[in-house]
Amino acid sequence: MKLIYSGKTKDVYQTEEGNMLLKFKDDVTGENGVFDPGANTVGLTMEGAGKAGLKLTTLFFQKLNKKGIPNHYIDSDIEEATMTVIPATQFGEGLEVICRYKAVGSFLRRYGKYATEGQKLDGFVEITLKDDERQDPPINEDALKMLGILTKEEYQVIKNLTVKIAEMVKEELIKREIELYDIKLEFGKDPDGNIILIDEISGGNMRAYKEGQYIPPMELERIVVSS
Amino acid sequence: MKLIYSGKTKDVYQTEEGNMLLKFKDDVTGENGVFDPGANTVGLTMEGAGKAGLKLTTLFFQKLNKKGIPNHYIDSDIEEATMTVIPATQFGEGLEVICRYKAVGSFLRRYGKYATEGQKLDGFVEITLKDDERQDPPINEDALKMLGILTKEEYQVIKNLTVKIAEMVKEELIKREIELYDIKLEFGKDPDGNIILIDEISGGNMRAYKEGQYIPPMELERIVVSS
Q1: Are residues B125 and B13 in the same domain?
Q2: Which chain B residue's Cα is nearest to A112?
Q3: Number of compact structural domains in chain B
Q4: N or C: which end of chain A has fewer CB within 10 A?
Q5: Percentage, residues of chain B above pLDDT 70
Q6: pLDDT digits over B80-113, tens only?
Q7: Residue A77 confidence class, pLDDT cut points 50, 70, 90
Q8: Can you give the pTM of this predicted structure?
């Protein structure tokens, strides 16, 4: 297998069958040793973080498949911490699509004049550019179109899929009395040109709370996978 | 007359007839003594800057009136550096609506991964919150709606008016071989609930270039008003 790309939390290989294989690492994003799903740097390494992320991702992607929501999942090998996926091309040099149910993180840092911490948000969707150097700037529909990153139609498809996927995750968490505050998704195009969910769905790309307490990624995996 | 508000570049008074009177100051926005239309602080004081801004504003608002584009202008007293305007309420605690023809300033700082300096932009409109503390964050249509600042209909009206007004300014400048790079507008609601252009249209809220050279506000006024 050929290593295509070594990311902050995953390595990406090409398989002999022409699929991609994601190797989940034990590195998580954060700053100064503290986990932060919104951070752009690897903050710390936690043994088992990769497998935990993969378990949760596998559980959610299998649920998406049952619902017919298009995504890149083929299968997983938990022991090896790898997931085989459909090859997909990203939009531009990569986008992050965020769905928010509570005002926290960068939303609050930007719009704190109009929102209080923890205020309910109605599944608000926004897109940021993956650009570490420029701190992942938010970008609107018109700019995405003008810069040739997303057509208006693609923007709508991605927004609608994001709401559906976030709603599914939210419902799954509520069953365990966990509240989803926000979630960050990535999309790509499969070889047929269909827009599909790529990357992962784990504690590493969402903020989940129980009784007002933030639940770190590995604990989230334990609660969700074991119940 | 009662002083209602003292802003960075204007003081606002209430007249006895129930209108508002804007007194243009000689203070301009910038940093460390250098003018910058995108800055949030008063950078320097230039004698005559207030009158120059008012002359240009008056010229543009009178042209808007001829075209039937709704705005707050009633009349001006150049000697006193004052403009009488219709009282209007702002949206939320104030918005800035930017129309861009060239990639410069904060657009380039945010989207430099996809745009080069001076690249042509197709009259791209974006909205930022007036919030000095948070560096005037950009905000999209959905967030403006969710936070109760603009309805979807108001967003469309403002976007359409912005394009029309920016286009008019651009045309006026082209006649003097000046190129408009970007312009920052403000809107409010008049007592009947109509959306109207408020504030000013001057060198202080646009970037204008001649033969690739930036033209400072007072020079812009001299070129445009005298020709």
Answers
A1: no
A2: B134
A3: 2
A4: C
A5: 100
A6: 999 999 999 999 999 999 999 999 999 999 999 9
A7: very high
A8: 0.92
Structural domain containing residue A168: 89-226
Residues 6+ apart with CB under 8 A from A78: A51, A54, A55, A58
Say how many residues make up chain A: 227
Which CATH number characterizes residue B142's domain? 3.30.470.20
Q: What does the pLDDT look like over B143-200, one tens digit per residue?
A: 999 999 999 999 999 999 999 999 999 999 999 999 999 999 999 999 999 999 999 9
Please, which residues 86-115 of chain A have a Cβ atom closer than 8 Å to chain B? Answer: 92-93, 109-115
If you count residue pairs, one on A and one on B, with CB atoms under 8 Å apart, how many are there? 71
Token pair for residue B101?
């023809």
Cβ(B214)–Cβ(B34) under 8 Å? no
Of residues A114, A137, A141, nearest to B111 (C-beta): A137
Distance (Å, whole) CA B95 – CA B91: 7
Domain boundary among A59, A85, A111: A85
Please check whether residues A149 and A126 belong to one and the same domain: yes
With CB atoms and an 8 Å threshold, state whether A114 touches B140: no
Quick check: ipTM above 0.95? no
In chain B, which residue's Cα lies nearest the Cα of A101?
A: B146
CA B188 distance to own-chain centroid: 12
For residues B61 and B186, what is the distance between their CA atoms, to the nearest angstrom?
A: 13
Domain boundary among B85, B113, B140: B85
Same domain, A14 and A107: no
A112 to chain B, minimum CA–CA distance in Å?
8
A123/A215 same-domain check = yes
